[in-house]
Design a protein that fits this description.
By secondary structure, the chain is mainly β. 9% of the residues lie in helices and 42% in strands. The longest helix has 9 residues.
Length: 201
Amino acid sequence: MPFSPAPSRPTNLASRTGRAAPLFAVMAALALGGCSWFGGGSKTGGTALYPCPTVGVLNETDHVTLLSGSGTDLTDVVARAEIGQIVSKCEYDTDAATITVDLAFNGIAEIGPAAQARALNLNTFVAVTRRYSAFDNKQVYEVPVVFEPGQRQVRFVKTVEGTVLPYGGQADGSIYQILVGFQLTPEQLAYNRRVSYNPIR
Protein backbone atom coordinates (compact mmCIF):
# COMPACT_ATOMS: atom_id res chain seq x y z
CA MET A 1 0.00 0.00 0.00
CA PRO A 2 1.66 3.24 -1.08
CA PHE A 3 2.13 6.02 1.44
CA SER A 4 0.62 9.03 -0.26
CA PRO A 5 1.29 12.35 1.51
CA ALA A 6 -2.43 13.10 1.51
CA PRO A 7 -3.85 12.87 5.02
CA SER A 8 -7.62 12.76 5.17
CA ARG A 9 -7.56 15.20 8.09
CA PRO A 10 -5.37 18.31 8.09
CA THR A 11 -2.80 18.90 10.78
CA ASN A 12 -1.65 22.11 12.38
CA LEU A 13 1.33 21.45 14.62
CA ALA A 14 3.14 24.39 16.18
CA SER A 15 6.49 24.00 17.92
CA ARG A 16 7.05 25.76 21.21
CA THR A 17 10.07 26.69 23.22
CA GLY A 18 10.68 24.34 26.15
CA ARG A 19 9.35 20.97 27.20
CA ALA A 20 6.24 19.83 25.42
CA ALA A 21 3.00 19.10 27.21
CA PRO A 22 2.99 15.61 28.76
CA LEU A 23 1.20 12.93 26.79
CA PHE A 24 -1.48 12.49 29.45
CA ALA A 25 -2.70 15.95 28.48
CA VAL A 26 -2.77 14.80 24.87
CA MET A 27 -4.82 11.76 25.85
CA ALA A 28 -7.18 13.91 27.90
CA ALA A 29 -7.79 16.12 24.89
CA LEU A 30 -8.71 13.05 22.86
CA ALA A 31 -10.93 11.61 25.58
CA LEU A 32 -12.85 14.87 25.72
CA GLY A 33 -13.25 14.88 21.96
CA GLY A 34 -11.31 18.10 21.52
CA CYS A 35 -8.93 18.74 18.66
CA SER A 36 -5.75 19.94 20.33
CA TRP A 37 -2.25 19.89 18.96
CA PHE A 38 0.94 20.07 20.96
CA GLY A 39 4.45 20.71 19.74
CA GLY A 40 7.68 20.80 21.67
CA GLY A 41 11.37 21.44 21.47
CA SER A 42 13.63 24.40 20.89
CA LYS A 43 17.20 25.10 20.02
CA THR A 44 19.28 24.69 23.17
CA GLY A 45 20.11 28.06 24.71
CA GLY A 46 18.06 30.02 22.22
CA THR A 47 14.54 30.94 21.25
CA ALA A 48 14.43 29.71 17.63
CA LEU A 49 11.52 27.32 17.26
CA TYR A 50 11.89 24.03 15.45
CA PRO A 51 8.87 22.54 13.65
CA CYS A 52 7.36 19.19 14.58
CA PRO A 53 6.56 16.62 11.88
CA THR A 54 3.08 16.91 10.44
CA VAL A 55 0.67 14.17 11.44
CA GLY A 56 -2.42 12.87 9.65
CA VAL A 57 -4.52 9.89 8.63
CA LEU A 58 -3.53 8.15 5.41
CA ASN A 59 -6.19 8.55 2.77
CA GLU A 60 -8.56 5.55 2.45
CA THR A 61 -7.36 3.96 5.71
CA ASP A 62 -9.34 6.06 8.18
CA HIS A 63 -12.02 3.37 8.50
CA VAL A 64 -12.33 -0.40 8.28
CA THR A 65 -15.22 -2.83 7.86
CA LEU A 66 -14.73 -6.35 9.18
CA LEU A 67 -16.82 -8.89 7.28
CA SER A 68 -17.79 -12.48 7.95
CA GLY A 69 -16.20 -14.86 5.44
CA SER A 70 -16.48 -13.65 1.86
CA GLY A 71 -19.77 -11.84 2.45
CA THR A 72 -20.18 -8.21 1.44
CA ASP A 73 -23.77 -7.57 2.52
CA LEU A 74 -24.67 -5.39 5.50
CA THR A 75 -25.77 -8.53 7.33
CA ASP A 76 -22.19 -9.85 6.96
CA VAL A 77 -20.63 -6.97 8.91
CA VAL A 78 -18.81 -8.14 12.05
CA ALA A 79 -17.74 -4.64 13.05
CA ARG A 80 -16.90 -1.21 11.73
CA ALA A 81 -14.35 1.22 13.09
CA GLU A 82 -13.01 4.66 12.27
CA ILE A 83 -10.17 6.87 13.42
CA GLY A 84 -11.13 10.25 14.81
CA GLN A 85 -8.47 12.75 15.86
CA ILE A 86 -4.71 12.70 16.32
CA VAL A 87 -2.65 14.74 18.74
CA SER A 88 1.12 14.80 19.07
CA LYS A 89 4.12 16.46 20.61
CA CYS A 90 7.81 16.46 19.76
CA GLU A 91 11.08 17.30 21.45
CA TYR A 92 14.45 18.05 19.88
CA ASP A 93 17.68 16.67 21.29
CA THR A 94 20.29 18.96 19.77
CA ASP A 95 23.19 16.94 21.20
CA ALA A 96 22.04 13.70 19.57
CA ALA A 97 20.52 15.50 16.53
CA THR A 98 17.23 13.62 16.96
CA ILE A 99 13.53 14.44 17.29
CA THR A 100 11.38 12.34 19.60
CA VAL A 101 7.69 12.26 18.70
CA ASP A 102 4.83 11.03 20.88
CA LEU A 103 1.35 10.76 19.42
CA ALA A 104 -2.09 9.49 20.26
CA PHE A 105 -5.22 8.95 18.22
CA ASN A 106 -8.76 8.04 19.09
CA GLY A 107 -11.60 6.34 17.32
CA ILE A 108 -14.88 4.52 17.61
CA ALA A 109 -15.94 0.96 16.79
CA GLU A 110 -19.41 -0.43 16.23
CA ILE A 111 -20.40 -4.09 16.46
CA GLY A 112 -22.26 -5.59 13.50
CA PRO A 113 -24.97 -8.23 13.02
CA ALA A 114 -22.51 -10.96 12.04
CA ALA A 115 -20.38 -10.67 15.19
CA GLN A 116 -19.78 -13.98 16.98
CA ALA A 117 -17.84 -12.43 19.87
CA ARG A 118 -17.83 -9.14 21.73
CA ALA A 119 -14.05 -8.71 21.76
CA LEU A 120 -11.83 -8.04 18.76
CA ASN A 121 -8.48 -6.54 17.77
CA LEU A 122 -8.21 -3.69 15.32
CA ASN A 123 -4.96 -3.55 13.35
CA THR A 124 -3.62 -0.02 13.04
CA PHE A 125 -0.32 1.39 11.84
CA VAL A 126 1.97 4.36 12.30
CA ALA A 127 4.23 5.16 9.34
CA VAL A 128 6.96 7.76 8.89
CA THR A 129 7.71 9.21 5.47
CA ARG A 130 10.37 11.71 4.54
CA ARG A 131 10.36 14.07 1.59
CA TYR A 132 13.03 13.79 -1.10
CA SER A 133 14.08 10.35 0.16
CA ALA A 134 13.11 6.71 -0.04
CA PHE A 135 13.19 6.47 3.76
CA ASP A 136 10.08 5.15 5.40
CA ASN A 137 9.29 3.24 8.55
CA LYS A 138 6.06 1.51 9.49
CA GLN A 139 4.90 -0.24 12.65
CA VAL A 140 1.64 -2.17 13.09
CA TYR A 141 -0.21 -2.01 16.42
CA GLU A 142 -3.16 -4.02 17.68
CA VAL A 143 -5.92 -2.08 19.43
CA PRO A 144 -8.17 -4.34 21.55
CA VAL A 145 -11.85 -3.46 21.61
CA VAL A 146 -14.44 -4.99 23.94
CA PHE A 147 -18.19 -4.45 23.63
CA GLU A 148 -19.93 -4.87 26.96
CA PRO A 149 -23.35 -6.63 26.98
CA GLY A 150 -25.91 -4.33 25.42
CA GLN A 151 -23.20 -1.99 24.08
CA ARG A 152 -23.13 -1.42 20.33
CA GLN A 153 -20.35 1.15 20.20
CA VAL A 154 -17.08 1.64 22.04
CA ARG A 155 -14.43 4.35 21.86
CA PHE A 156 -10.70 3.68 21.93
CA VAL A 157 -7.44 5.61 22.31
CA LYS A 158 -4.03 4.43 21.09
CA THR A 159 -0.78 6.07 22.16
CA VAL A 160 2.57 5.59 20.43
CA GLU A 161 5.51 7.11 22.27
CA GLY A 162 9.19 7.45 21.53
CA THR A 163 9.41 7.60 17.74
CA VAL A 164 12.95 8.91 17.20
CA LEU A 165 13.81 10.71 13.95
CA PRO A 166 17.21 12.08 12.89
CA TYR A 167 17.74 15.64 11.73
CA GLY A 168 20.66 17.85 10.82
CA GLY A 169 21.86 20.63 8.57
CA GLN A 170 18.92 22.15 6.75
CA ALA A 171 16.70 19.17 7.60
CA ASP A 172 14.32 19.45 10.55
CA GLY A 173 10.94 18.12 11.58
CA SER A 174 9.22 19.72 8.61
CA ILE A 175 10.67 17.10 6.25
CA TYR A 176 8.77 14.33 8.03
CA GLN A 177 5.16 13.26 7.87
CA ILE A 178 3.72 10.70 10.28
CA LEU A 179 0.66 8.88 9.01
CA VAL A 180 -1.72 6.63 10.92
CA GLY A 181 -4.51 4.37 9.71
CA PHE A 182 -6.00 0.93 9.83
CA GLN A 183 -3.80 -1.85 8.50
CA LEU A 184 -6.10 -3.05 5.73
CA THR A 185 -6.02 -6.29 3.80
CA PRO A 186 -6.26 -5.92 0.00
CA GLU A 187 -9.91 -6.99 0.26
CA GLN A 188 -10.65 -4.39 2.94
CA LEU A 189 -8.98 -1.64 0.92
CA ALA A 190 -10.99 -2.66 -2.16
CA TYR A 191 -14.16 -2.59 -0.06
CA ASN A 192 -13.36 0.93 1.17
CA ARG A 193 -12.90 2.08 -2.41
CA ARG A 194 -16.04 0.37 -3.66
CA VAL A 195 -18.59 1.02 -0.92
CA SER A 196 -19.65 4.49 0.21
CA TYR A 197 -18.89 4.89 3.91
CA ASN A 198 -21.40 6.19 6.43
CA PRO A 199 -19.63 7.49 9.55
CA ILE A 200 -20.53 5.89 12.88
CA ARG A 201 -22.88 8.12 14.83
